[in-house]
Amino acid sequence: MYRTIEVNREKLTLMGVQFPNIESLESTANALGNNMFEGLEPTKELIQVYLDWKNGDLNESDFVTRLYSLYGE
Question: Where are the domains of the chain?
Answer without folding.
Answer: 8-71
